[in-house]
Amino acid sequence: MRTSIKAALLAAGLLAAGCATSQKASSGATTAQPKPAEVIALLTKVNDHWQATHPAQVRSFWDHAAYQTGNMAAYAVTKNDKYRQYAEDWAVFNKWQGATSDDRATWKYKYGETPEYVLFGDWQICFQTYVDLYKIKPEPIRIARAREVMEYEMSTPQNDYWWWADGLYMVMPVMTKLYGVTKNPQYLSKLHEYFGYANSIMYDAETGLYYRDAKYVYPQHKSANGLKDFWARGDGWVFAGLARVLADLPATDPHRAEYLSKYQGLAAALQKAQQPEGYWTRSLLDPAHAPGPETSGTAFNTYAYMWGINHGVLDRKQYLPTAMKGWQYLTATAVQPDGTVGYVQPIGEKAIPGQVVDKNSTANFGVGAFLLAASEMYHFTTKK
To answer: How far separated are the first and last CA of the chain, in Å rounded?
Structure first.
């Protein structure tokens, strides 16, 4: 751990003096298991810093909504009511809606940030948090718009709603969460249908990885060095999204084995692409394309690995070193002394040669990804 950060965390009470890594992350060894109180303290520092510097009253678009998925995970492990209130203030500000158009004849689902893009997944990820808040206080208004939008969408003949990798994180968990509160089986059948389309255009069987979207499929598109170009955050979206789906999917779902297979395949593929320092580079298989650490993809991957280890669907011996190296990077490099989460690639859709990503590069979705990883690490530290 860098001396300055370690000193800062010690001073803040976030590390016990006797808790140090067993070996450097670059050796490939697992870091020492942190104590539950250490994880909670660091999670709290990061989330308190974000909320103190960013008001809840912002739009319900994907980046803010992705942060809220992490904020709700933080609430679940801390029971800190101000985190729930922050999410609720955001939901109320947005009237429990995503995109706001009521004219169904104009509803669209390609890329768009205006009110008619109701069927676009970037405006639907907010429904994940609305459902979580509904389960805390089951007022129908909290999921009324989510149900209206998703049930209309499922009534259409189209199945190509999830045409980019990010969408699998944005919307797949909406389907399982709404199934959980409605028991409408169509949510699960359409989940499988839409996932099948996404696989048909983005999944690469040779590597087990996902292209960001059809524009990036090899050899139509290549990395700077002529390789297949898989975007780290894009695969992080899918890996984390599958973990969230498996968390809520009934054990009896006829397609559970398929989701699990894709999830475990990503675990194996991403393990090969991890850098010795614990992070994943922006172009997974071509580190020289855009070298250096990137936090959002690394945090989503760390979360997804820890979730699988915690739930017995990833082999602990095989994958715990990978997850712990990711955690070591997040705590020793990404998180800054004031609680800022740095090295987050800005909003985009690909690895960009020459783009500066440094300790000052932060973003709401990157903070959310860190909170997810920290929440799963906390669960790991408390397992008997």
So the answer is: 27
Write down the pTM of the prediction: 0.93
Find out whether 43 and 375 touch, Cβ atoms under 8 Å: yes
Q: Provide the pLDDT for residue 31.
A: 65
Whole-angstrom Cα distance, residue 195 to residue 137?
30
In this prediction, residue 2 has a pLDDT band, given cuts at 50, 70 and 90, of: very low
Whether residue 166 lies in the annotated active site: yes
Question: Cα separation of 246 and 249, whole Å?
Answer: 5
Q: Phi and psi (nearest 5°) for 209?
A: -110, 170
Give the number of other Cβ atoms within 10 Å of residue 189's Cβ. 16
Return d(Cα 247, Cα 176) in angstroms, integer: 9
Q: Looking at this protein, which amino acid is placed at residue 47? A: N
Comparison of pLDDT for 3 and 281, the residue scoring more = 281
Q: Are 187 and 176 in contact (CB under 8 A)?
A: yes
What stretch of H or E contains 40?
A: helix 36-53
Which residues, 6+ apart, have CB-to-CB distance to 187 below 8 Å? 150, 154, 175, 176, 178, 179
112: DSSP letter: -
pLDDT band at residue 32 using 50, 70 and 90 as cut-offs: confident
* Cα–Cα dist 359/365, whole Å: 16
Distances in Å between the Cα of 102 and the Cα atoms of 58, 61, 280, 370 are 21, 17, 42, 35
**Residues 357, 42: Cα–Cα separation, whole Å:** 22
Confidence of residue 5 (pLDDT cuts 50, 70, 90): very low
Sign of the alpha-carbon torsion through 279, 284, 290, 294: negative
209 and 230 Cβ atoms separated by less than 8 Å = yes
Q: Averaged over 296-317, what is the pLDDT?
A: 98
Question: DSSP 3-state assignment of 227?
Answer: coil
Check 166, 213, 235, 253 and give the catalytic one: 166
